[in-house]
Every structure is written in structure tokens, then in C-alpha cells.
Amino acid sequence: MPLGLGRRKKASPLVENEEAEPIRAGLNVPGLDGLDGSGVGLAEGATQEGLPPPPTNLRPRLIFHTQLAHGSPTGRIEGFSNVRELYAKIGEAFGIPPVEIMFCTLNTHKVDMDKLLGGQIGLEDFIFAHVKGQRKEVEVFKGEDALGLTITDNGAGYAFIKRIREGSIIHQIQVINVGDMIESINGQILIGCRHYEVAKMLKELPKGKNFVLKMVEPLKAFDMISQRTGGRSGSGLQLGTGRGTLRLRSKGPATVEELPSAFEEKAIEKVDDLLESYMGIRDSELAATMVELGKDKKNPDEFAEALDETLGDFAFPDEFVFDVWGAIGDAKPQLL
Prior knowledge:
Number of helices: 6
Radius of gyration: 20 Å
Strand content: 15-25%
Low-confidence stretches: 4-50, 223-242
Order of helices and strands: EEHEEEEEEEHEEEHHHH
Shape: globular
Distance between the termini: 26 Å
Mean pLDDT: 75
């Protein structure tokens, strides 16, 4: 069956995996507003209107505990539906501008990309906010086609390094680390760009020439780490069996849902691997959205149409869509 008949084709923004290896064949939905009140589009200066914020009475009344990852008292936050609102609430709790927050991790103060907050928060999760620390500028010689970087973003305008391949060009530069936010490449500001745009720019840098990265690293913890050894208080709101999760959405209210099923977890992991392989990014929430769109579709054409309708800005090519469809299908028998 031909795939994607009648699909509207756009100039594809996709790039090959920045890791450039034949490897496995991750709230981040286009249109999420920026932190400063301006819309964050798919490029600097672009805007995209979304739905108005949901009425307060439609938002889940859930209370979460939070700390600044480098050390702080514990704060309590509630009443948010997306990343922008989450960062604003954390900013209010600690008296800092929301734009200072780079990303959040769940249940650890460490820069652990496996614990990165995506589009879902467990009802008992403890949120650690990582704020901007030291700025640094590094000149890099691109001696190979692949730099060895995997890029992700926070869904609110900041793209940062999620993985560095061992032995790669970047791995040999000690001052570049996982968690560093990429602020600019050769003077081109990247605030507001999505992960795939940044990966594409890195891929297209000419081989055999130098380029300049300006980055911001997360503020490091020192002696204050010892203050976080105790467990969290149980005073937060508890629902059901504790297996619930708050799903943040770029449009519309957040919803309380059950944790992903075994099939969904496996399918999301497979799709996230494909995003890394094709695009050089990790985006578990984007992967979860694609699994949600594809799990009930009867054929790849229906799936392709659903992707175009919901995630058309990505302009996924047919071969990628077909591989994602296959990955979702491969995950289903695990429940049988």
C-alpha cells in the first residue's frame, strides 16, 4: 500500500542522526508559548496562536513539591497546565524570573537526562528546577561530519545537550557537558528554536572549519547537596493508587491520566529511538504523542494523515512515518 497518498508535502526540516551511526531503527509539541509572553514558533520571530489558558476551575488542583537543583528550601506549586505555567509557578515560589529556568528533573537534583521532565509528571514526583549558571564560549573544529551530539529542548524555547557520544569530537572537549544550553552558533541566537532546528544547524556546519558555540551550563550544587538527603513530605494531594500522572499540554488544560501501559512505554521508547536516529533529538513527549496518534489507526495512510493534522510543522518524510508505524506495531504483541 502506498504510504501517505495525498499528503501535503513541505520542505523537510529533518536531518540525519547527529551521532551518524547505524543505531536503533523524545511537551514538545510545536506552538508552545515562550516564557516571556511571546509566542515561540519554529524559528526566531515566528509566532503561533494557541488556545487561551483554560479557566482555573478546569485545571487539576494538584500540589507538587519543588526545589532549585543547586539547593533551596522546598516550595509548593499548583495550578499549571503547561511548561510555561510550570516555570512561572516555580519562579514565583523562589522569587526568580522564569527565564532563568533551563529545565527540570524529577526526583533527583542531578543533571540526569533519564529523569528529565517531559510532558508528564507523576502525582508523587518531586520537581527539581535547574537554573542558568556559568556562560561559556567554545571554538570547535569540525573535523568529521558528525559532532556526536543529541539535542533536546524544554518545550519553552531552550535547546540543550542530552547526550554526547563517547569518542566523538564533542566528547574530547571537556568544557562541553550534558545539560548545557546552546545559546548561539556562530553568533546566531537559538533562543526560541526547537531541538530539531538546532540539530539541523549543527549538521549543516561545513566540515573542516571552525565554529563557535555559546552555551550556558546549569548552576552547580556544592555543600547544599547534603540538605536534600531527606525524603519528601507526604502532605501533597494523593489521588487513587498513586499511579496517576499529570499530562501537560501546549494547548488546552492539563489532564490527570493513568501511567502509560506496558505497550505504550515500549512503543514510546522505540519511537524516541527513531527520533534520535533520523533527527538527532530525544523527545519523549513528542514520541508519546505519535504513539497516541498511531495506536488505534488501521493502516499507515491513516497514521500519516493524523501526523500531518497534528504535527504538520515537522513535515515527517514517508520513510520515517513508515518506520514509526512499524515500531508501534512491533510493540503491540508484547501484551499478547
